[in-house]
Amino acid sequence: MTTYKKVFDDLFSEMSKVIVGQDEVIQQLVIAIMANSNALLEGYPGVAKTMMVKTLAKLMDLKFSRIQNTPDLMPSDITGTNIIEEQAGKRQFKFQPGPIFANVVLSDEINRATPKTQSALLEAMQEKQVTIGNVTYRLDLPFFVLATQNPIEQEGTYPLPEAQADRFLLKIKVKYPKYEEELEVVNRYAFDSQEPRLRAALSRSQVLQLQQLTRQVPIANDIKERAVKIVTTTREVSDLLAYGASPRASIGIILAAKARALINGRNYVSVEDIHTMAYPILRHRIILNFESERKGLTSDDVIEQVIKKVR
Amino acid sequence: MESFSKVLEDTRMSINKILILDASLVGILAFLLIFWILSFLNIPLLNPYYALVPAAVVFIAVLIRKFRTNKILEIEKRYPSMDEALRTASDNANRNNQVVRDLQAEILTQLRSVEVAAFAEPRTIYVQTVLIGLLCFAIVFSAPLSVTFTHAAGGILDKIPKTLNLGHNTDSPDPENDGQKPFFSNMVTAVTDALFGQPSVAKIGDKELEAQLTPQGTELDVRNVQDVQGRDFTDTLPNEVYARASEAYEENIQKDEQELIKNYFEKIADNP
Question: What is the mean pLDDT of residues B244-259?
C-alpha cells in the first residue's frame, strides 16, 4: 500500500507545481478517475478548473481533449462524423473522430450546450462508446469526462436535468483560493511566463491497474451499511428534501470511498471516507424542498444533517 | 486466507475464556449475596442454598450478554491501530485479491501483539474479588450471631401461614381443618414459649437458673421437624404374662402395708 501511496503523493506533488492549493478538489478529481467515472466541476470562472484537468491528463500521460460547449454545438461536433474522402479517384466515407475520442475529455461549461448535445456526451460517458450511423466505435480506455459549469450567468444555459447529472459520480465544488494561496498564484504566474516542467507520475497502464485495484479495496459490512443508510435516509427526510438520491449514489459512495482509501494508502475503507465522499456524491443527486430553500439551506447543509442522523 | 481466519478464531476463543472468568466472578458474587440475604431472612422452606438458582441465572445471563458482544470491535477498542481494519479483514476473510491479502497480512502481524490480558478489566476483577472476600467473611461471621430479619420481613411472612399453616397467628383454629389447630401451631408456640417467654431465665424445680442460649449450642432446626409417626400398640397382653403374690413384701415393709399390697396382688390375680 505504501507503494501506491507514494505514486499518488508524487502525482499530487507534481500537481502542486501548477495548481496552488485546491488539494481537496484535486484529490476528488483523482478519485473520480480511480473509480472509472466522471466528475462535474462547479466553480466561478478563473479558479483553474480547466488547468487542473489539463494538468492531470498530462501527469497521467493520457490523451486530453477539450470541448467548449456553446448553444450551437452539434452532437457530431463531439462524437465525430463521416466525411467524404477521395482516394485514388474513388470517393468514400471516412470516419473523422470528434474530441470525445480521448482519454480525458474536458467539457467546458456543459450547461451551455443544448440538451441534444449534452445527451450525446452523456451517452458516450455512460456506455464508453459512440454510434455513428450503423457503426459503433469503442472509446479508448481509460475514459473520463470532466465537465465544468459555473454557478453564475445562468441566462441562456440548459441546466443538466437531474437524471443526466446523476451520471456524474461527483459534483466537485471549486472554491476561491485562500488569500495566501492567491498571493502564491500571483507570484507564480504574474512574473514568470515559463511553464513548470512536469513529469508523468502515472502511465496509462498504471491508471488502468489502479482502477482495478480500487474495486478490490475491501469494506467492512457495518461501514457499507452506513453508506447505504446515508443514501436511503435522503429519501426519508421529506421535511428537508423533495427528492432523495438514487441507488446509483450508494454504488458511487462506496466506490469513491474505496478510491479515497487507496489514495490515502489504506487497504480498507473507513467511516471517514464515507462521510467525506457523501458530499460530492450526493449534492447533485438531491433536490431541496421549498422549506429548505426558504431557510437558505444548501445541499451540503442537508447532507450534513443526514450524516448526523445516521451516526 | 486460512491462517488469518484461524488466528482470528483463536483470538476469539481466548477472549471468550476471559469472558467466562468474568461471568463466573459475577455469578459467585450473586450466589454469595443471595445466600447471605436468605440466611438473614431465614424464610421457612427457603434453604439458603437455593441461592444457587438465581446465581446460575445471573451467570448465564452475563455470559450470554458478554458472548454476544462483537469480539472484533472489542479488539479494535483496545488496539486502535486496528480500528476499522480488523473488522474489514474479518468481513472479507473469504475474498482473495491483492488488497485483501495485504490487509490480512498486516492484521496478522498486529494480531500477534494482542494480549488476552488486555480484555480482562483489572479494576472490575479487583472489585469483584474484594467483594467476594468480604461476603465470605460476612457469611462466616454472621452465622454464629444468628442475626435474622424474620421480624423485619414480618409483613411478608404473615401471608405465608395462610397457605402453609406455618409461623405466626397459628393458635386460632383453622376452619378448613375441622376447627383443629394446624399441626405446626403447637410446635411453634411451644418453641416460642420456651425460647422467647423469658429470655434468660429457666426454671428447674423451684430453682431459677440463669442460662444463656448461644447459637453455637443450638441444634434445633425447624426444617428438620417432621410429622409424628403414629405407632400401633396391641390391646391384649400375651398369655404368659400374669401376676401373683410375691414373697418380696416381707422385705422391710411395714406390717399394715404388707397386708395392703398382698390384697392388691390377690385382686389382680383373681381378675386378670
Answer: 67
Task: Give residue for cell 479494576.
Answer: B123
Question: Is residue A8 in some structural domain?
Answer: no
Number of structural domains found in chain A: 2
Decide if A4 is inside a domain. no
Rounded distance between C-alpha atoms, residue B246 and residue A165, angstroms: 135
Those residues with Cβ within 8 angstroms of residue B108's Cβ, 6 or more apart along the chain or in another chain: B3, B4, B7
Task: In whole angstroms, give the CA distance from residue A15 to residue A204.
Answer: 17
Interface of B with A in 58-87 (CB under 8 A): 84-85, 87
Could you tell me if B42 lies within 8 Å of chain A, comparing CB atoms? no
> Residues A56-81: pLDDT tens digits?
888 888 888 888 888 888 888 888 88
Identify whether A195 is part of a domain. no
DSSP string computed for B137-193: HHHHHHHHHT---TTTTHHHHTTSHHHH--STT-SS--GGGTTPPPHHHHHHHHHHH
B84: nearest CA in chain A? Answer: A270
Q: Does A172 touch chain B (CB under 8 A)?
A: no
Cα of A223 vs its chain's centroid, Å: 24
Q: What is the pTM of this model?
A: 0.69
Sign of CA dihedral A114, A116, A122, A128: negative
Structural domain containing residue A109: 19-189+202-215
The CATH number that applies at residue A230 is 1.10.8.80
pLDDT digits (tens, 9 = 90+) for B106-158: 888 888 877 777 777 888 888 988 999 998 888 888 776 666 655 555 555 55
CA dist A104 and A57 (Å) reads: 6
Positions of chain A with pLDDT under 50: none
Q: Has residue A14 been placed in a domain?
A: no
